[in-house]
Amino acid sequence: MQASYPTYFESFDYRAMLDEYPLGPALLTHFQQMSAEELRVLQNQRFMKVVARAWQIPFYQRIWGSAGITPADIQSLDDLQKLPLISKADIMDSVEKFPPIGDFHGLDSIPKEQRPPLVFHTTSGTTGTPQPLLFGPKGREVQSLLVARSYRFMGLKPAATIQSCYGHGMINGGHYIREAVTRYTNAIFLSAGTGVETRSAQQVQLMKTFGVNVLVGFVDYIKRLADVAMDEGLVPGKDIKIDMIIGHLGMESRDSIAKAWGNPELFDWYGVGDTGCIAAEGPDHDGMHVWEDAHFLELLDPDTNQPVAVGERGNMVVTCLYKDDVYPIIRFNTHDLTEQLPGENKLGLPFKRIRGFMGRSDNMVKLRGINIYPQGVGPMLDERPEFLGEFICKAVRDDTGRDEMIVLVEVSSPPAQRSELLEIYQSLLKRKIGIEVQVELVGEGELTPLTQVDVRQKPIRLLDQRFGG
């Protein structure tokens, strides 16, 4: 007798999901008439469903129980701050205690013949053991829908041709974006991947051959592709006519990226592997709109874990309001920093807006009382015409125990002229950071072995060598 178990789309109510998480024109129709109070009611309903699911899972039973929390303590979203934060460290602790995939997902109590199909990925593992990422059918589809919602909200044209520079393999990125585009838009999708999967020279030829008009991926690599196109004799904006770049802009210079590609419209969005897409820039280009029907976002002080005021920088702590099947996520500390923008939502949506990714609180270097976020150093250098966009920071400690930072910068100037520029760069960074840092100027491509911009989706921006690293 053949085994019986549910198929992917039998595992949840797909039609209900489309109604509950609208996209396209339905997004504005649905939410522009919703008040903040009505949104809160919706969030509370979804939150309580997610909490009920979490209480069934040993991971949350253990963490919440250790904090003295009982089910009776959480009666509404107003009680959220009673719950302890979780982070990647807790997930990896779960994996270590219950190898190979931990006990945070909630599958162990479901008989095998009743388990829904799963989507399984891992993080890149560049800093240690890869973290398992498990998605149930409902959670996976809402995540994919939210990416497509973002693209369509930005103004993605019907029947566009999208080239994706997100990686594949075991990591989530490229697969997740492909599912979003092919299921929830009518675009042609080219899954080129990174420069390792499809050589950069081949990528730009693909763009020309198939008339790609939208580029998606991490902007460091997208910016590099413009140089490759020129090397291949192709002029961005003429031979390759891109009208949208949808990337992770953070604090990067938009002007330099747009200029490199013939001035297409640029859009930012934010999410992490565990949570999916959390916020996206809209056609108003007024910050990123948080998808608050799907996520409850807190901004907390990195030191005290207390809420910060509007306009102050804090860690993004995310509760996914839709993940009530596999791996509920409640108060997940991303350690990514942003700030909430003041003022009303000009599009009439009830959602808060955030500035975007502003660095990581766990990748911060404190020098003489000043917090330095390496991700933010690049934009400080953009006013210099010879800056080529590539940089890396080294944190070092001398024999006396004094910490220093060295900023290595790629410039177009020939070696003979670089000594004259050093003082200019040091003064610029001292003015913008607040303390003096050392600077080393190098030629184009010299930092690639350190930043790994040619093989990584997210280039390395900090080498912390203070502790023997």
TrEMBL record:
The keyword Cell division does not apply. It comes from the Bacteria. One of its GO terms (molecular function) is ligase activity. Keywords: Ligase. InterPro entries: AMP-bd_C_sf (IPR045851), AMP-dep_Lig_C (IPR028154), ANL_N_sf (IPR042099). This is Phenylacetate--CoA ligase family protein. Pfam families: AMP-binding_C_2 (PF14535). It comes from Alkalimonas cellulosilytica. Residues 369-466 form the AMP-dependent ligase C-terminal domain. Signal peptide: none annotated. Transmembrane segments: none annotated.
